[in-house]
Amino acid sequence: MRGDSGPEVARLVAGRVLDVPDFPKAGIVFKDLTPLFADGAVFRQVVDGIVAHYGADSFDVVAGIEARGFVLAAAVAYATGKGVVPVRKAGKLPREVFAASYALEYGEATLEVHRDSFASGQRVLVLDDVLATGGTAGAALDLVERAGGTVAGLTVVLELGFLGGRERLGARGVHALLTV
Q1: Which secondary structure element, helix H or strand E, spans residue 63, and what is its range?
Q2: pLDDT over 90, % of the chain
Q3: If you average pLDDT over residues 34-63, what whole number do you get?
Q4: Which of 8, 44, 105, 167 does the annotation list as catalytic?
Q5: By CB neighbour count within 10 A (0-12 exposed, 13-18 middle, 19+ buried), where does 96 fall?
Q6: Which one of 16, 68, 88, 123 is the catalytic residue?
Q7: Which stretch of DSSP H or E encloses residue 47?
C-alpha cells in the first residue's frame, strides 16, 4: 500500500473502499467510499490525517468538489473552524458563477463556483474523493483561482495512479491518502 500520508493510512483507506464494476457505465470500475464515510472511527482518522498534513494555519477556507468532496470538505472545515465552499455541477448554484468544462474518463462535465466564493488571495484547500484523469481536479483548481482564491493544496482520498491525473495537474501538488 502506498499513499502520501504513509502505508498505515493507505491501508486504512484501502480497507474501506469497494469496487463496483460497470458503474456508471460498462467498463468503468467505480470506487465506492461510502463504507469509509460510514465508519465513524475511520472517517475521523481520515479527516485528522488531512488536517495534520496541512496544519490548520495553512488555509483559510475549504472547497469540496461535488458530491463526495462535500462530505470531506465539511468535516475538515468543521475540524479546523474554517468555512466551506461547494464546487458544484453546472446549473446548481443560484448566483453568478465561473464555469469550467472538462473531460471525464466516461464523458464530459462542467463545474461551477460562485464568483464571490473567495476573497482575493484567500488560501483554499480543495478536497475530493478520487483523482482519476485529473479533469475534475484541474477544473476545480482553475475555478478557485479564477474566483480570486489561491490554492493551498489538493487532497484526495484515493488516486487512480494508472490514469495519470497527477501528471496532468503539472506542478500542482496532490496529497493522496491511497494511490492504486
Answers
A1: strand 61-65
A2: 92
A3: 96
A4: 105
A5: exposed
A6: 68
A7: helix 40-54
**pLDDT for 104-123, tens place per residue?**
766 789 999 999 999 999 99
Q: Convert 84-113 into a string of H (helix), E (strand) and C (coil).
A: EEEEEECCCCCCCEEEEEEEECCEEEEEEE
HEC per residue, 117-164? CCCCCCEEEEEEEEECCCHHHHHHHHHHHHCCCEEEEEEEEEECHHHC
Q: What is the mean pLDDT of residues 20-25?
A: 92
Q: Is 105 a catalytic residue?
A: yes
Strand order in the sheet with 107-114: 97-104, 107-114, 83-89, 61-65, 123-131, 150-159, 175-179
Check if 172 is active-site.
no
| Predicted TM-score of the model (pTM) | 0.95
Return the pLDDT at 106: 67
